Amino acid sequence: MEINLILNGKKIKAQIRPDELLLDFVRAQGCWSVKRGCETANCGLCTVWLDGKPVLSCSTLAARADGRTVTTLEGVAAEAEAFGSYLAEEGAEQCGFCSPGLIMNVLAMERELSNPSEEEIKEYLAGNLCRCTGYMGQLRAIRNYLNRKGGETNGENR
Amino acid sequence: MFSAREYVKVNSLEEAWELNQKRANVIAGGMMWLKMGNGQKGTIIDLSGLGLDQIEESEEEFSVGCMCTLRQIELDPGLEREFGGVFRESVRHIVGVQFRNGATVGGSVYGRYGFSDVLTCLLALDTYVELYKGGRIPLGEFARMPYTRDVVVKIIVKKDKRQAAYASQRNTKTDFPVIACAVSRKADSWRIAVGARPEKAEYICLDGTGKTAEELAREAAACFSYGSNLRGSAEYRAHLAEVYIRRLAKELGKEA
Lengths: 158, 256
What we know:
CATH superfamily of the largest domain in chain A: Beta-grasp domain
Oligomer: heterodimer
Largest sheet of chain B: 5 strands, antiparallel
Distance between the termini of chain A: 44 Å
Number of strands of chain A: 5
Shape of chain B: globular
Number of strands of chain B: 12
Structural class of chain B: alpha+beta
Low-confidence stretches of chain B: none
Strand content of chain B: 25-35%
Order of helices and strands of chain B: EHEEEEHHHHHHEEHEEEEEHH
CATH architecture of the largest domain in chain A: Roll
Order of helices and strands of chain A: EEHEEEHHHH
CATH class of the largest domain in chain A: Alpha Beta
Mean pLDDT of chain B: 96
Structural class of chain A: alpha+beta
């Protein structure tokens, strides 16, 4: 079957299998940042944006992306690099395998929540598992990144 | 992950229903649970083109389209206002935001999964399921029905001035619950749902007149059956259910 979508700002027309997962599709399109992790919808490694919302590409059919906009880390490279520097500053990644999914979700959170509290950050990112860092470095990096323009994350979303 | 021969984004509920009469075919909601199965499917039926991803509010009720995501009911200001955050509390522990942006209310309700927080929460409210052929039936009745090939179209939640609260316990964050409890009250008429027992959620109605929160919780918890699995024993679940029902009853203003 044929689908038409916008992938990282580019119009794409492609033939897919009916049961093809979005994860396999975007990787076939060269978006290697999107990682295959648990494949049980738990780890968040495969996070992409579908019409701007973070979803798990391991549990989304590519057919569902027809007529929609898909964004992977490659589509927000500058922002990803900016946040990545905060991760590096805090020594917040070791193997780095979870970083693309985490970064996509942090950038989605930044768009959705203004000044999230620590509890809100943890809740938003609960679906991004990391088996190396213990999360504390990541949390410091996220706080520093969100506070980079001055001010402090204070949980005004509640 | 299953394999499938065809994918059809249907143009009408009638088309969906007709396709769904064949046992090999399957309606895909968010596919979070469905994808865990193996085997060969015939046609994947996609309802996402039917506008069933909206939460509509009237004076009497909320109508939640089957393709609404868990994240939508978590964030909907109308549901939050009417039911005091019970929807948010019931789903916010489910994996992560990405998962809840995919998983659908229709899929959760149709599946009637034992671990379902959504089913537990909805059972404590005056909720109905709208089936394409079967019409509108109470959720409690639907939950007890055998699986059929009908199509879940909407979930209807009545605005009956009921107050509600929800609590669950998990061994680790984002895991399935060990126990899930939802309690609602309208005056001293109480509706109590317990899920993850680990069987699917059920509910009871109790008159709370003249009872303390402790007495109400003891009586309610004893009405349910409990089972054991790797997450907890039947005895542990029975104890937890009583504790959480008591806490929720107090939260809703029941005197100690």
